[in-house]
Specification:
By secondary structure, the chain is an alpha/beta fold. The chain contains twelve helices and twelve strands. α5 links the parallel β8 and β9 (175-179).
């Protein structure tokens, strides 16, 4: 295959490692309730689809929606969130010091973050996949058809390593154009320096949607890797980890049972099952073990919505990015997400 343009390799530069050997443990729920506001991260305000500031100065995105869901669960009001812009390097010290109550920043759970940084993780709220995008004019549907071409990759990252391993696995050769900064990487691909572009799937979809030719690119069928994104919390506060997990489960359970922000009042008044009655606080008990009120899950669904509503506003059909759910769909709709049992 003829390459659109050949380009040289730009050397990688490693990101500085986050440091800090301990975690500030304690009763985070009490701290948040005493403060009256949940402290959440906001990236730099331009992490499109996850944590961004719109033209009205309002925060939005999937990560921001999850912060609001936790605020609704523990404070009864999704607006009681203080979004603090932080860099990737600042995220661990900010969580360890207690400046942030939870880290929701498109981050995966890893062994080093658990064992060395003292973190705990929620269940996965998003399955991020490493994908490849190609110029539509090439007419290819899989990476195997790009043999002999070129591929843009983020230099010095796990994505670069995944591409090298994948090319070896499918036994084709491509020229790697490795560039460190995402903006320069996007520019190289959209200006035609590479036939294809490997990145975290949401980054590709969002970059294409913001380009001069949003319909001029195809996401290939290849999945190079999967990274489960999780909410990250400090070790030493099991109840706070439980609250994060059960808030996520509330979003998923509501979607599974057909409960959304428009019908939750009706279903609370006339629950179709004992489990849903307890889930919505029509009968007591759902908040007891967590130290929350019995209407905490109702508050989440009434004010934020179920997982589908949250996803569609942040990344899906209600957003500029129109991303499919893919693996992030519920188990009964072709995906891998599922709620724990509300009994």
């Amino acid at each position: 295959m003829k390459s659109i343009i050949r380009a040289g390799m730009i050397s990688a530069m490693c990101l500085p490692a986050a440091t800090g050997a301990w975690a500030a443990s304690g009763d985070t729920l009490k701290s948040v309730q005493d403060r009256g506001v949940l402290n959440c991260p906001g990236h730099n305000g331009s992490y499109l689809g996850f944590a961004e500031v719109d033209d009205k100065g309002e925060w939005k995105g999937l990560d921001i929606e999850l912060c609001r869901a936790i605020a609704a669960a523990v404070l009864g009001d999704p607006s009681k969130v203080n979004i603090i812009p932080i860099s990737w390097e600042q995220r661990w010290p900010a969580l360890q010091s207690g400046d942030l109550d939870v880290m929701i920043k498109a981050s995966g759970g890893t062994l080093s973050r658990d064992g060395e940084l003292g973190m705990q993780f929620s269940n996965s709220y998003y399955l991020g996949t490493t994908k490849v995008m190609a110029h539509k004019e090439l007419g290819i549907k899989s990476l195997a058809e790009a043999d002999g071409g070129s591929i843009c990759v983020p230099a010095g990252t796990s994505t670069e390593r995944q591409v090298i391993a994948y090319l070896d696995r499918i036994d084709i050769e491509m020229e790697l154009v490795a560039i460190e900064k995402t903006e320069q990487l996007d520019k190289a691909y959209f200006e035609g320096r590479c036939d294809t572009y490997a990145q975290w799937g949401p980054v590709l979809a969002i970059a294409a949607s913001q380009s001069d030719t949003p319909d001029g690119h195809d996401l290939l069928s290849d999945v190079l890797a999967v990274e489960p994104e999780v909410m990250i919390l400090r070790q030493g506060d099991d109840n706070w980890v439980d609250i994060a997990n059960w808030t996520l489960s509330a979003l998923l359970f509501a979607e599974q049972e057909g409960i959304d922000s428009t019908n939750v009042d009706e279903l609370k008044a006339n629950p179709p099952s004992a489990d849903i009655g307890k889930f919505l606080g029509a009968t007591p008990g759902v908040g007891t073990g967590l130290g929350l009120s019995d209407d905490w899950a109702y508050n989440v669904i009434k004010t934020v919505g179920n997982y589908s509503e949250v996803f569609e506003r942040g990344l899906g059909s209600g957003s500029p990015y129109k991303m499919p759910r893919d693996l992030t769909a519920l188990w009964n709709n072709g995906g891998v997400l599922f709620p724990m049992v509300f009994d």
